[in-house]
Amino acid sequence: MDAISVSHLSKVYKSGKKALDDLSIKVQKGEIFSLLGPNGAGKSTLINILTTFLQPTSGKILIMGRDVCKEQRAVRPLIACVAQKVSIDNHLTLKENMLFQSRLYKLDDATANKRMDALITAFGLKEYEKQRVTAYSGGIKRRLDIAMSMMSYPQILFLDEPTVGMDIESRKAMWDTVKKIKDDFGTTIFLTTHYLEEADMLSDTVCIIQDGHELVQDTPENLRQHTHLNTIRIDLDGSENQQDFGKWISDLQFVRAIRQEQNTVYANTQNAAQDFHILNQLLVDKKIRYSSIGIITPSLDDVFLSLTQNKGRGV
Ligand SMILES: Nc1ncnc2c1ncn2[C@@H]1O[C@H](COP(=O)(O)OP(=O)(O)O)[C@@H](O)[C@H]1O
Ligand SMILES: [Mg+2]
């Protein structure tokens, strides 16, 4: 049995906006699943539907085998959700915040205290116990927020953009926390992000969505494999006009998408092994000055680019 199974899910808001369009996904028990997509892709809409806050327009969703629309009461105790807005009470201490949560779940005192201590240790929050909650950094607040929602020991934890707006150190600490939840508590984790690096670092499975529909769903390794051998990197020597070169190369028939970073251009092509020679010859013929050219293992950025900007020629 899958932890989450979504088939042919669509959501049309009252405004007429179609936020999800025939989306199907599967999340296995015990994995970290990332839903990756740009702003407005439909990530929060999907999380809100999976966590029973919103009704879908059509489609079927099972959570641990239970129908989300028909068996809300059975589903709710199995899940916890950390929304983008932090839900800590600033008037309470760290422990009071956690115990308040345990009362919502009607845990007895002994269980609540045991879980709280385990979570404080696992989340590295011990050193913050004595500080005022208002003095916490954004990263620590978010970590406490997640610890609080873990008090019910949910089978599935939903995290909506858990690291948005954080500096890189706090993000890395958050990634460690998320991995720890999976390893120590066996929790299935469903998170949304618009950071490719985050999906790549954390996930067992990534689903990339855009405009409410799935572009691809696979392991990060397979996603990279997907465009393996298909990216050519050209380092210009700095004397070329970047814009002219960018236009020239993206107009080439075999180039599907490009990404430019200062003097470096990444070109996704149909068959890099073959196209590399053609491109190399074209650069020589056109007397374009470059310091190096080669085929590279693409990053998830390249995968995303090739999927979203393939000039309509299909992936
Ligand atoms: N309550 C709503 N009513 C109408 N449109 C909405 C509502 N909530 C979100 N949308 C629209 O649905 C699309 C998906 O939004 P959302 O799920 O929040 O995307 P994401 O979380 O990926 O940024 C966006 O175009 C957004 O403007
Ligand atoms: Mg969102």
UniProtKB/TrEMBL annotation:
Keyword terms: ATP-binding, Nucleotide-binding
Domain of life where this protein originates: Bacteria
Family annotation (PROSITE patterns): ABC_TRANSPORTER_2
Domain ABC transporter: residue ranges: 4-236
Molecular function in Gene Ontology: ATP binding; ATP hydrolysis activity
SMART domains according to UniProt: AAA (SM00382)
UniProt cross-references to InterPro entries, sorted A to Z: AAA+_ATPase, ABC_transporter-like_ATP-bd, P-loop_NTPase
Keyword flag Nucleotide-binding: yes
Protein name as annotated: ABC transporter ATP-binding protein
Annotated organism of origin: Paenibacillus anaericanus
